Amino acid sequence: MKKSLFKITRIALLVVCLLMVTSCMLSCHLFNGNNDDNNEDKYENLVKLTIDAGGQNAQYNTTSSLEYDKFLNPYPYNTLETLVNAWNDANAEKYGYYFVVADNSINMDRETMAPMLSNGSAPEILYYLGTTIAEDQSKGWFYDISSDMETPNKYSKAGELGSAKWKDIYDSASYASTFAPNGEKYTVELEQNPIGIIYNKTLFEAAGITETPVTYKDFMEAQDKINAYAQTINRGNPADDSTYICPYFHMYPWYDSYLESTLWASELEYMDVITVDGRVDAEEYARAYMQKDPVTEERRFSPEDEKYVELFRLIKQMTKYYPTNYSSYYAEQQFLVGNLAMLEVVGGSIREIVDTVDGEFEIGVMPYPVLTQQPENEEANPYYTTCNVDKYVRRGFSGYSTGWAITNSAMNKDNAAGNTNCVDACVDILMYLSCFENNDKMVNDLGFAVPLSGNTTNEYFKSLANTYKGDVANENTVSWSCATAGGTMNKDYYDAFYLFRQDAIGLSLSEVESKLSVLKSSFTNSVNTLYTVNKWDNKAWPAYGVSNQEGK
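and the corresponding C-alpha cells:
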C-alpha cells in the first residue's frame, strides 16, 4: 500500500511540475538575441506588428530557455520566433513592418479579446477559434482572406499543394467548414487536430480485451469487461477514487460532437442548403428551426427532436461507470496512476500523457468508435442505435485547428496610411508559416499537433492520421463538425449546451427528455439574436423540404 501511495504521489508531483512548466512555456518569451528591443533596434525605421501565438493544442510562444529538462522544461521551443525573424529579414523593409511574437497569448480569453477587438487594439494577427463567428462576423473585427486563398502561395514549392492556389494546402471538405455563415473566411488554419481515446493497454489485457474497439458497441462492451475485472480485484467501488478502476472518462465532451454529427448526418441533405459545404452553419440551423413542414407543422430541426433524446441516451450510457463524484474527478491524473482505462484526448493531451507515463504501463491510442444501427436480424441491444446512421464521422482528426486571423488593428493602420501594406504583410507571413516546409517545422518542433502536410513525427499521431486519411476517402463519411449546433451558434448556446450535458449525466433519461425544453428555449434565443444581428433574409431561404441535391 505504501509503495502504491508513493507511486501515486510521485506521478502526481510530475503532473504538477508538467502543468507548471507548460504554463511557463505558454507565457514566457525567450530573449536570446531575438527580443523586442533588438528587433526595435534592427528595424528602428519600421512599424512593429504583433502575432498572438495562441493555439488549440498548445501555444507557440517561445520558452524561457532552450535547454531541455525533463521536469522543468520538457518542451523547449522557439521555432515560430525563428521563422518570424527569418521572414522579417527577407521582407520587413519591403512592407515597412516587422513582426514579433507576443510574450503571452490571449488564447481566446473572450473577456480580454473582445474589448481589444472592439477598440482596435488587438494584436494584428490573433488566434481565433470560430465557435463564436456567427455573432462576430458583422463586427468588422477580421479581414476576409478568402480571395487571397485563391492565389498561389509563393512560399510553396513548385508543384506542391498551395503553389497553384493557397487553399489547396487544405482538403476541400474541411476547408469549406472554416468559412463564416456570411461566406467570408477570417482565419488561416495552421495545424490539424488529432483526436481520439488514449487507453491503458495493460488494463485492457488484464480485463481480457484482445482487440481495440471499433464500434460503439465494442466500446461499451470493453467498458463492461473492465468494470467486471475491477470487481474481481476489489477495485470496483465508484465512490473511492483512490482505488476505483474507471473504464472511461472524458477530458472535454468531444465525443458528444462526434455522436451529434453522426445522428444528424442523414439530415444534411435538407439542412445544408444555403451554403452547400458539407456542414450546417448558424443560418442553416436558424432556417431549419424557423421553417415548419406545411403539413405536419413540425420543424426540420429542434433541440427537442428525438435525435437529441437518443444523443443523451448514448451519452448517459457511455458514462454509466463514471465515479460517484464525477464532477470533481481528475481524469488525466487518474489515468496517469493507472486508475482510468480510457480517456478522451486531443493532440496536446496525448503528448503530455505519454511523456508523463514514461513507460510505467503500456499505452495505446485509438480513434473514436463508429456508432452503428440496430440490425434487423439481431436481438435488440442498447449499444446500437435505432436512428438512421447511414454515414459516420471521419475519425482520427477533428479537422483543422489553431486558426490565426488578421484583425482590424492591421486594417486600421492601412486606412490611416492610405495603402494596404499592413494587411499585405500579414497575409504574406501567414503564407510563409503555412507552406509545408515552414509549417512542418513550426508544428513538429513543438510536437502537440499534426502539421498541414500530415507529415507528423509523433508515432501516436500517425495512427490517427492514417485512420483519418482512410475515412476521407470513404464517401459515406462526414466532417467532424457537420452538425453540431452547440459549436455553431453563439457563445450563449455553446455554454447552455455544455452545461445541459453536464447536468444530464446525473439525471434519468425521462428527466433529460422533460428538460430539453430548457435547451430549446436557449436555442430559440440564440436564433433570434443571430437572425436580428446578421439581418438574415428568410424570404431568400430555400423552402422547407428542399434538398441540396435538387438540380444536380
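(Above: one complete record from the training split.) The domain at 25-190+401-454 is CATH 3.40.190.10 (D-Maltodextrin-Binding Protein; domain 2).
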